[in-house]
From TrEMBL:
Residues 116-234 form the CdaR GGDEF-like domain. Residues 284-340 form the PucR C-terminal helix-turn-helix domain. Belongs to the CdaR family. Gene3D superfamilies: PucR C-terminal helix-turn-helix domain. This is Regulator of polyketide synthase expression.
Length: 353
């Protein structure tokens, strides 16, 4: 062992190279340089610090310093510089390879985790390497911005730094998938996902964030992830304005569309007659949508549609005439509003069924 606690094997041949090069003034040969690189790779793989390794080389240089005349001193300095540089190059090469392998392993794990493709027992074992204990509940938040984000992009790095700075190591995993930011956190730490949503919304320049419900077990992560994705899809279809959506608050929509054929029948039977109106169904469907979003307050709905209250009232009367359902009647209103939600979820009237 050297004085720095580094095995002397990483200095094999260094004294001979130093003595020979300093005596002749020659540069190191290709084989000598490659031997230093190989030793550097081995030292990196063994987990030794580069600082200590350089210190060991300097100590060996002092120990084997040639007789003090100008030619040998210059040769020794040049040889030491080349040797240490080649050693550091090999060390860094091994580190880059290790980083790439670690990134590949992390990417493969995340893909398996979010797609549920791996054996759940093996997946749980692999998860511990990345700080997750899948036997517990986990919840997943997904942020979608105007741009796609990949691993290593400045935006996910910024969000991850903020989370670690705020919460430290709490079994949190921040990653990317299909251009979106993803945060996996223990299910009982809602404050983590709330903070992620806030930072991701800002970092993605006004993107949208959806948070799945906490789910238990090795398959819980993929369930929560899919809930978050479905919430983002619902928000786009329903044109929801909220920047942060929780799957738990949107459960009524999957229920409404669980029987797709029944919902399609309701849309066609209730709203189909609107296609007889001048300009087709869309203007009157938009009127109903805004009217319900405004809490059925005519003045507010008219303002949002840039209409007079009289013009809005005329449109509502026309809807009543065509459909037989009165938007002002509480019983009819429920049917109409459910049909409007179904139309938005099924992209009617753009898509016929």
């Amino acid at each position: 062992m050297t004085g720095q606690g580094i095995p002397e094997g990483y200095l094999d041949g260094y004294a001979r190279i130093l003595a020979d090069a300093s005596a002749t003034g020659r540069r190191l040969t290709r084989d000598e340089l490659e031997s230093r690189r190989v030793l550097g790779e081995r030292a990196a793989d063994a987990g030794h610090g580069l600082r200590a390794l350089v210190g060991a080389h300097l100590a060996a240089t002092r120990a084997h310093w040639p007789a003090a005349h100008a030619a040998s001193v210059d040769g020794a300095l040049a040889a030491a510089e080349q040797a240490v540089d080649a050693f550091a190059e090999g060390y860094e090469r091994a580190q880059r390879l290790a980083v790439r392998q670690e990134e590949a392993a992390r990417r493969e794990f995340i893909d398996d985790l979010l797609y549920g493709r791996s054996d759940l027992g093996l997946l749980a074992e692999r998860a511990e390497r990345f700080g997750l204990r899948l036997s517990y509940e986990h919840a997943v938040a997904v942020a979608q911005g105007p741009d796609g984000y990949e691993e290593g992009h400045a935006v996910p790095r910024e969000v991850e730094r903020a989370l670690i700075g705020r919460f430290g190591d709490r079994s949190i995993l921040v990653t990317t998938k299909d251009g979106r930011l993803v945060c996996i956190a223990p299910g009982d730490q809602d404050e983590v996902l709330a903070f992620f949503a806030k930072r991701a919304y800002a970092a993605t320049d006004g993107g949208r964030v959806a948070i799945g419900r906490p789910q238990a077990g090795p398959g819980g992560v993929v369930q929560s992830y899919e809930e978050a994705l479905n919430a983002l899809d619902l928000a786009a279809r329903l044109e929801l304005d909220e920047p942060v959506l929780r799957a738990a608050d949107l459960l009524v929509y999957p229920v409404l569309t669980r029987d797709r054929q029944a919902m399609a029948d309701l849309v066609l039977n209730t709203l189909g007659p609107l296609r007889q109106a001048r300009g087709g169904a869309r203007p009157l469907l938009e009127t109903l949508t805004v009217f319900f979003d405004a809490g059925c307050v005519a003045a507010e709905a008219a303002r949002r549609l840039a209409l007079s209250v009289r013009a809005l009232t005329y449109r509502l009367e026309r809807i009543h005439q065509l459909t037989g359902a009165d938007p002002a009647d509480p019983v009819h209103r429920y049917t109409l509003q459910t049909a409007v939600i179904g139309a938005r979820l099924l992209d009617w009237p753009d898509k016929e069924f």
